[in-house]
Amino acid sequence: MYFESVDYLISPTIQATEHPRKGYQDIPVLRDDLTFAKLKQYLINKGIHINEETFYKNFGLVTADGKFNLLAEILADENMNSIKVAVFKGKDKSEFVKRNEYGYTCLIESLEKVINYCDALNETFIDVSVRPRREQRLFSSEAFKEAWINACVHNKWAEELAPAVYWFEDRMEIVSYGGIPKNLTKEEFLSGKTEPVNKELMKIFLQCGIVEHSGHGVPIVVKEYGEKAYSFSQNMITVTIPFNRPKQLKNEPVNEPVNEPVKLTKSAKKVLQALKTNPESTIDEIATSISVSRETVKRSLKSLSEKGLIKRVGSDKTGYWETIE
Description:
Elements: H1 37-45, H2 55-58, H3 70-75, E1 84-88, E2 96-101, H4 107-121, E3 124-127, E4 134-137, H5 141-154, E5 164-167, E6 171-177, H6 186-191, H7 199-207, H8 217-225, E7 230-232, E8 236-242, H9 266-277, H10 283-290, H11 294-306, E9 310-313, E10 320-323
Parallel strand pairs: 1-5
Antiparallel strand pairs: 1-2, 3-4, 5-6, 6-8, 7-8, 9-10
């Protein structure tokens, strides 16, 4: 594990007062011009009615005296919370590659952007050492998603530190601040017992369908990677997800070639090339670009999928085609 100091952005909007036992609803912020169009849209998409006159109060976004609170600042359309994915070359932080910023906006949007970015990096490998060939992902998308959501909802935002993802050659680390809730033991935490640090934020995440009350998030990570995936300090929780990179094949004699040539029709080759150029292409767009019929494209897509050369990621409307080399 690597626990070098983490660069972060302290929000200048939080009132400079001591608040060791206050809930987020009780901690005022200095800004009085916050807007919540994104949060409202998330709630409306879940079928929740928005009453503009009582919106702030109903969702706990103001203090008892009517000032915007810390929860409001976290969920506002614009804020000063930096949420990043930092990428490093190698297995430590000695060589920085890039930093992707997904913060300064509603936490729900930031959370989703980080999930989408990491999912795009989750390569699919084909294990050709077994028959039939078997697909393997770089990491478990489900385990990562649960670890990241937990990091966001249970982060101690009152300390003005945001969760982050650190990407290395052999692993990723999801870091959140605040440590294990004081009412839980390490064993209880790892078993899935829940004690929300941010109860008001948890309620909104529940309404938006992001989390559940089941407490299954931590057990999913533990089942996939073991308890060793979690590392605790007094003020920090780090979840380490190792990458499942394919090992170099040994030069041993085999009865058949490991990489068998795949035979493709002329149309299938054109469709494959079109998907490599633009993975988000629709059937109509592909048909037009390579001058064939829609039915020809459909047959080619089916053939390419069966041969393990392409994979559909996401829904038919908003997803894309992943080409597998």
